[in-house]
Amino acid sequence: MASSDLETKAKEAFIDDHFELAVDLYSQAISLTPNSAELYVDRAQANIKLQNFTEAVADANKAIELDPSMAKAYLRKAMACIKLEEYQTAKTALEAGASLAPGDSRFTKLIKECDECIAAEEAEELPAELVNKASIEAVTPNILPPAAALPSEGTLVSSTKPKYRACFLLLFVHFSLTIHCNCRHEFYQKPEEVVVTIFAKRVPANSVVIDFGEQILSVDIEVPGEEAYHFQPRLFGKIVPSKCRYEVMSTKIEIRLTKADSLHWSSLEFSRNVPVAHKEYVSSGSQKPTYPSSKPKRVDWDKLEAQVKKEEKEEKLDGDAALNKFFRDIYKDADEDTKRAMSKSFVESHGTVLSTNWKEVGSKKVEGSPPDGMEVKKWEY
Fold it and tell me: What is the pTM of this model?
């Protein structure tokens, strides 16, 4: 099937609220036409409907990269960032989109909402910042040398460690993970920053694109002739994008994320199952540095999975919501032939037939079968 046909079917699925099918069809179209900004921005919208907000931001970023003049790509990115509570990143995207579409009132309305949310966050955080500052000043010995100034964005400055380093408590947590690509990444943290290292040898600097959001890190490495590497996690905590920086070296890429607060990150990526530990770093001249074990905490995944399935089973839906969930569950757990049969029968019949038998529908076109008293009409775009 041609890319344009897949795009048309994806739009039909989206209109009928079959968002998972729409994402699947858009992905197939993108595999055939990878440089279409329109496909990425439409898939971003479907991902927003599925509450896949991180994926939606990644799709919107790709659309902006392919066509920086597409105003709705900035709108999609902003909508996803707002859902992720990344209001400053959303506002930046909205301001860029507003400059491209000055007559669109949606940008003005959402910018106002972002300003209100940013003001509310600052009002909540101000008392805590004052308390933290007073606590740190109260316990810091006078013999400590003044802190070095933070280097400007995009630069790395090496400095010698003071001989009073025993006065600082550095909780150094180190994790090492292997990604689906040939690259491997690890991270460690200090009170004020998280350092992410991606091990990739001899990567040209112009092949690396890294973006920082309030709680999103986006890394794209595309070297001609090699498999592309994409890493776009939602981070455990918030960062200050303007102070984050990275450096491409001969054997690795080092990314320094400046924390928005001094909370301890128990992992690099955000997870609703991992509670935020409100643990502040405090310097003390009487304590020796302590280094916790890097051995990962054991999680009973079987128990967690059983609990999630139980909650899903007990969730009571009715009407169209129950029917849509029923079809989504069938599609999600089906084999490839069943998925192909469902996709083909649904799109060719304009949403009036849904078959799971590939042998029956694979060799012929599936005709529409509307309810009694109704007729099939082709949707015009």
Answer: 0.43
